[in-house]
Design brief:
Number of helices of chain A: 23
Radius of gyration of chain A: 31 Å
Number of strands of chain A: 28
Oligomer: homodimer
Largest interface: A-B, 92 and 92 residues
Strand content of chain A: 15-25%
Helix content of chain A: 25-40%
Largest sheet of chain A: 7 strands, mixed
Distance between the termini of chain A: 14 Å
Strand order of the largest sheet of chain A: 8-7-10-9-11-12-13
CATH class of the largest domain in chain A: Alpha Beta
Number of domains of chain A: 5
CATH superfamily of the largest domain in chain A: Succinyl-CoA synthetase domains
Chain lengths: ~700, ~700
């Protein structure tokens, strides 16, 4: 990846005579400040925009680190091949017309990557917009705006968003350490970028615009590590049906279920933003200042309105606006008019000037009573922003204890070392996102959150063998395993199941009932009727069977009621408890996931569910279960006793480890998991494998 | 109110020599373009900023329509008095230091109003920032930015927000028809502004920044009328605890419960925005274009990323991005490259120029397939916004069928006749808010939504008399009426109640049970124990009593269990049904409200409730009840039959009319209302009056 961050020499292949052509603009941009060797290659060998030209990559008189390819799609394969033969280290393919247009040129993305890899080259693109490597002064994009150097690395799956962010970053005073347009991500992916940027000393903050995540398992593993070191801000587009329609025609990438993506990002410690504006707002703060260490904000300004709006935004975003201590309030009042409101929001009134505001900010920021300061003021004088910024920069101590963000309503935000916003609400929202990252780091730290070490080991090799053998014995065309097989697999993974047996006839049924009644006090009988969805509603479940006579009566009622009856499930009757649904799946866009939902007859109506990326430690599983709205059913409410939440958490954790460790289990569901005062017991489980359904292929690298 | 919209002559009283003093700046601003007679009054009678000066209002040689008062607080009462004597029609009091500072000057807001009203003058302020009346070229504020003339009327309860909006309106090309800084709203209120602006032909759109609503009953009545004519955009600050702390010290106004305010705005047809930015975004659209008539958006651009973000924002905001018809798609493809994506989002690719974009916008906007067009593009060339705006203005038909909003990522938004945004998400969000107003107008039209005519009349006079007599008989210090009295009042308002009686002894209890059993099949017995909260949990409710023996046994168990037992409620046992809680109250910040919540044992846990402003028609009450998350309990789910939703709606409507018609009923609750297949029956009701608690005063005008 180094050639993309700091190439030692660059050749632009396919620079046109026409100044508006992409190759020409790239050559012209590169020439501006690049410190390495630079050349263009064109059929006539002419110089372009003052950059020396050659007829072929072979004629270039220096060793080429990076080749930027902007030739027509038809010749791109040949050009990549020649680059490889000439010893180029890496290529950027600007050219479009491959997989994103249904391989209009007759060549797929995979074809290009295969050619590049044959010579050991990495390939960025195709259909991308170039790179910027400020470390070596290189702008190899066709952006009209020269970038500023700074600590932000930005990777974009959309050229248009790349262009927009480059332009706005400059306007907002955000400097870049690296910009990479990912295009079709045929080879170099956002995962590669994360790996490169985490070790790049020039990069403090990582920004990604993504429309899909190619390899979510790897993304989780890598991002989790990177996020513990540097903030990763992701704008993930394509939440909506029509947005995905756009994404599909735009980059031919697979759509994501947004709840799944949310779960992945939450687990990975990624700071997710909803809009481009929020991404830039957050970058503007983190470019120069640390994330808040806690939720406490001081709001300081010269007018009540913006302060109240900021306070509203703070509480809406889960931040706090604590009342300041009497001591601190008197220290503030030493500097400003007595009529000022000092409880927080701190309204210094319209007459105060920049230096008094800066004094008060300094006092409050270093008080230890807040984790960030938002100046939410109104521009009553010209150059209020510049003056205030200067005053703040002049007055504060060198090691600033907490982030300070300025918002000045009514005047345009200008270039500033510090974040200057127009709207106090935006500043507050951005700080709350940054604090979300702090909270994630706190939660992420500590062994209690490591699924691998927090619980006794499971013999995954044995579980995997069992899955394979059961899958091979499976006859269902959709690859749902028999209840029996599913039970064995869950048992091997440490999940406690209700005892059960299947009977195909009245006499078999009698035997099953007798055996189970000997072990337990009561049994349940469930009709097995193919295609019957809501068994309970249809009278297909009979409870409280305590003797064989009732069992026979129940059996006969099933026979009468369901002509399509194929058998009867006889099951240990699990005592009263709270019913949960626990599911898991391999999500193509977000990797292994686990879902916990409120169960029981009103499950669909309540729609109370939580999705998390797997695996989860027992602690994480407990917090997941307790984040259900109906969690008081588990912990007890209105005098009702609680149930064994720990047992539920243990089950969820094991299920999450199962789906994470055994990718061949593509989907499964326990419904219900009955959680009682003495434990958690799975009553019904369905498991589906992809063995025999598709060839199991290693996932393509993202 | 006319002197505030178009004063014929203006005097500024208290203009200082110092150019930075408020009075001086107001005089200077007024002089710039005011078409009427203008003077200043100061002790020395000197001219200020070129405006002729006089020693007293009596010396001014023309009849004074409006006096702007910026004198010290101590002399303000005298100055107002003199204005009245001199025949001034209305005053604007800039001076602060009255009720908002605990009447620091020794004078309250009410004192000032009393003086003004004695001479028949209206009073704006005190503690305000002035007015702008573009109809007569008057800027009587101390804003640094000269306003532009246009169709937006803006009233602000915060001077700072006023200043900020004035500055930004100019920057965004939003012109004003009127600006009024409300200050402490001692006399002139936002309700007065609404009444004035609805008939003002220069005003197309109304903007309000409010921190509280003084007279919510009147606001509802007035705003509902105005909103059916012109859009009212309200930014209501002070949602949060700390925000209200700010509001309290800022304008001494009462805090609001935000759900109550939300209900009021929903009923009034107000477009509520969450942030200052959203208010300006929406004003920018509605200043020049109509609100969308439906939810269907076309998204057109030159790059996939911003289009996908716009589509995500559209669905998140409840708008639709429909696939365009084949016919329309072919017409688009006649103008642009074949590789363009045309399904919607419409991605015309980076090579298209402003004229092609304008052509496509024209085709799509007039197709009848969408209700608004959002151009979500990236600035790839200089002056893209201006060029695109010019092209659109040049190409479109005179009567534009649907609103068209432009967003261009990466370049600053500039002045434009049409709304030009930087972020497509903001444009989409603003359109969705505007469409919310369209939807409200549709719902609001028609007799089905008029509570007064949609149902048979209730004899409110009789109900009010009953409330008064029951309240006079009430002995509870908190003014909760006896169950019996509450029952009579609800019965008079047409609410069906379960039959019940209270017994103080075993023998009384026996009689009650015998009587009720004769009428109904079974009774319930409830222990009456002062201070006992969750009766059911404590064993204080016994069901299914069908004979007097069981009744005696139940009574004795209560005596044993509850030493503090004061009596027993014997009640007709209402058949099985869905339990709802129906409450109502007079909210000081939002007026009469009705609340419907899911009932039953898990009510608190589900926290499923809806709040609406009263009164409601039966249709409105039905839609309120059906908007509960647990509404499927009422309509039937998973094979369970539904219950009598109409009966529930009728009850809710009557309760809403009761709280609306009888302000003396300050709080009441039916818990539960049991809704069965054959009707809705209130089982338990509590009513509280304020008669005898406070003197009943007419609400102060807002």
């Amino acid at each position: 990846m180094r050639p993309y961050l700091a190439p030692r020499s660059v050749v632009v292949i396919g620079a046109g005579q026409e100044p508006s052509s992409p190759g020409h603009r790239i050559a012209a941009n590169a020439r501006r400040a690049y410190t390495g060797d630079l050349a263009v290659v064109r059929p006539d060998g002419a110089s372009i925009a003052g950059v020396p030209g050659y007829r072929s990559i072979r004629d270039v008189p220096f060793a080429v680190d990076l080749a930027v390819i902007a030739v027509p799609a038809a010749v791109a394969p040949l050009v990549i091949e020649e680059c490889g033969q000439a010893g180029v280290h890496a290529v950027v393919v600007i050219t479009a017309g491959f997989s994103e247009q249904g391989a209009a040129s007759g060549t797929t993305d995979a074809d290009l990557v295969a050619i590049a890899h044959r010579s050991g080259m990495r390939l960025l693109g195709p259909n991308c917009f170039g790179i910027i490597a400020p470390a070596v002064g290189l702008d190899a994009t066709f952006s009209a705006v020269p970038p500023t150097t700074g600590g932000i690395a930005f990777g974009s799956q959309s050229g248009g968003i790349g262009l927009a962010v480059l332009a706005e970053a400059t306007e907002r005073g955000i400097g870049l350490s690296s910009f990479i347009s990912l295009g079709n991500r045929a080879d170099v992916s956002s995962n590669d970028l994360l790996c490169a940027w985490v070790d790049d000393p020039a990069t403090d903050v990582i920004l990604l615009y993504l429309e899909s995540i190619g390899n979510p398992r790897q993304f989780l593993r890598i991002a989790r590590h990177v996020a513990s070191v540097k903030p990763i801000i992701v704008l993930k587009a394509g939440r909506s049906t029509s947005g995905r329609r756009g994404a599909a025609s735009h980059t031919a990438s697979l759509a994501s279920d947004d709840a799944a993506v949310e779960a992945l990002f939450e687990a990975a410690g990624v700071i997710r933003v909803d809009t481009l504006e929020e991404m830039l707002d957050l970058a503007q703060i983190l470019a120069h200042q640390p994330a808040p260490a806690g939720p406490r904000l001081a709001l300081i300004g010269n007018s009540g309105g913006p302060l109240i709006l900021a306070a509203d935004a703070a509480e809406a975003a889960g931040m706090q606006v604590p009342t300041l201590s009497e001591g601190l309030r008197s220290r503030i009042l030493e500097r400003v008019p007595r009529a000022a409101a000092t409880s927080n929001p701190v309204d210094l009134l319209a007459t105060v000037g920049p230096s008094e505001v800066a004094d008060v900010v300094g006092i409050v920021a270093s008080s230890g009573e807040v984790d960030a300061v938002v100046v939410a003021s109104v521009g009553v004088r010209p150059h209020e922003d510049t003056n205030l910024d200067d005053a703040l920069n002049g007055s504060e101590p060198a090691a600033q204890p907490v982030p300070v963000v300025i918002s000045i309503a009514g005047i345009p935000a200008r270039l500033s070392k510090r974040a200057v916003f127009r709207y106090s609400e935006s500043a507050v929202r951005a700080l709350s996102r940054a604090y979300g990252w702090t909270r994630w780091k706190e939660r992420h730290a500590g062994a209690a959150n490591d699924p691998a070490t927090s619980e006794e080991p499971i013999d995954w090799l044995a579980v995997r063998r069992l899955v394979r053998s059961e899958a091979q014995a499976c006859v269902d065309p959709n690859r749902w395993l028999s209840p029996d097989a599913g039970e064995r697999i869950l048992y091997a993974a440490g999940v406690h199941l209700a005892g059960s047996a299947i009977a195909g006839s009245e006499s078999e049924m009698g035997e099953c009932v007798a055996r189970l009644l000997a072990e337990t006090g009561q049994v349940v009988m469930k009709a097995i009727v193919p295609g019957l969805l809501h068994k309970t509603d249809a009278g297909g479940v009979i409870l409280n069977i305590a003797d064989t006579d009732s069992a026979v009566a129940a059996y006969r009622s099933f026979v009468e009621r369901f002509p399509a009856l194929t058998g009867v499930l006889v099951q240990e009757q699990v005592g009263a408890g709270v019913e949960l649904l626990v599911g898991a799946r391999q999500d193509p866009s977000a990797g292994p996931l686990v879902v916990v939902a409120a169960g029981g007859i009103e499950a669909e109506l309540l729609a109370d569910r939580v999705v998390r990326a797997a695996p989860l430690s027992v602690d994480q599983a407990r917090s997941m279960v307790l984040s259900l709205h109906t969690a008081p059913r588990l912990t007890g409410f209105r005098g009702r006793p609680g149930v064994d939440v720990d047992a539920a958490a243990l089950t969820v954790s094991r299920i999450s480890r199962l789906v994470s460790a055994v990718p061949e289990l593509v989907e499964f569901e326990i419904n219900p998991l009955v959680v009682s005062a003495t434990g958690a017991c799975a009553v019904d489980a369905r498991l589906r494998t992809d063995i025999g359904l598709n060839t199991v292929r290693p996932l393509r690298g993202n």
